[in-house]
Write a structure and sequence with these properties.
The chain is an alpha+beta fold and 224 residues long. Helices cover 19% and strands 29% of the residues.
Length: 224
C-alpha cells in the first residue's frame, strides 16, 4: 500500500523531459496507480530517486505522501544501500577501491556531467567480480546520488561502462549500456523493517556475457 518496487527496463526514461514527454516510467505509474499523481513533484509523481534511461534495474516509488517523505529522508541521509552490476572497458588497477571525485556539468558540453573541481562531492565504491582480456565485471556501490555518477566515475579512471555512448564507446554487440541496478536495501517507510530486494541481470546482458565473453554469472555467482 505504501510503495512500489519496479524492475525498470533499459530504454525507458524515469520521468518526462526534453525529447521524451511520453512512454516514461512516471506516465506508466500514474496510468496504473492514479493516486500517485498527487505524491511528490507533479512532474515526478512518487519518484524519490532515478535511473538513467539506458540503465535497467530496481527503482522504488512512493504511493503515499508520508512514504515519499520517509523514503526521501533515507536517500538524503544516505542510509539506502544500492548495488549496481557494470561491465567496464579494461580492468581497474585495484580489485577493490573507492572513487572520490566531485561531479558537475561538463565545461565543454552542458549536456554531459564530468569530474570537475567545483562539482558536488561524489563517492563510488567498487569491486571486480571477474576480469576478461579487455573487459571487467564489477559491483558498484554509489554512496552519493549524483547524475550519471557511476558512468562518470568509471570513465574518469579510464574504464567507461561498456556500451556507454556518452562517456565511452558504442558496442555493436550491445544496444544499451551495461549497467544494471541489481540491489536496493532500505527501511520500509511506514513499518520500518529493513527491505532487501534483488534483481538478476536482464536477458540481453546475460546473453552478451555468454556470447561475447563466454561467461555465465550463474556459474560464478556474486554477492548481489
Amino acid at each position: 500500500d505504501a510503495l512500489l518496487i519496479i524492475n525498470k527496463p533499459a530504454g525507458m526514461p524515469v520521468h518526462p523531459g526534453p525529447g521524451h514527454t511520453r512512454n516514461t516510467l512516471a506516465n506508466a505509474i500514474v496510468t496504473l496507480w492514479p493516486d500517485t499523481a498527487n505524491v511528490g513533484d507533479i512532474k515526478r509523481p512518487g519518484i524519490v530517486h532515478r535511473l538513467d534511461a539506458d540503465t535497467s534495474g530496481l527503482i522504488v516509488i512512493a504511493k503515499l505522501t508520508v512514504a515519499h517523505a520517509a523514503l526521501a529522508a533515507q536517500f538524503a541521509s544516505r542510509t539506502v544501500e544500492k548495488v549496481y552490476l557494470a561491465l567496464l572497458e579494461g580492468t581497474p588497477a585495484n580489485e577493490q577501491a573507492i572513487i572520490e571525485a566531485p561531479i558537475g556539468r561538463s565545461p565543454h558540453d552542458r549536456k554531459k556531467m564530468a569530474v570537475v573541481t567545483n562539482g558536488r562531492s561524489a563517492t563510488t565504491q567498487f569491486k571486480v567480480i571477474e576480469s576478461f582480456s579487455d573487459r571487467s565485471l564489477v559491483e558498484a556501490m554509489p554512496k552519493t546520488g549524483r547524475t550519471h555518477q557511476i558512468r562518470v566515475h568509471f570513465a574518469s579512471i579510464g574504464h567507461p561502462v561498456v556500451g556507454d555512448e556518452t562517456y565511452g564507446h558504442r558496442d555493436p554487440m550491445l544496444m544499451r549500456q551495461f549497467l544494471h541496478a541489481s540491489r536496493l536495501s532500505f527501511d520500509h517507510p511506514l513499518e520500518h523493517h529493513r527491505l532487501v530486494i534483488d534483481s538478476p541481470l536482464p536477458e540481453e546482458l546475460r546473453r552478451y556475457l555468454s556470447k561475447v565473453l563466454n561467461f555465465s554469472l550463474d556459474m560464478k555467482g556474486s554477492s548481489s
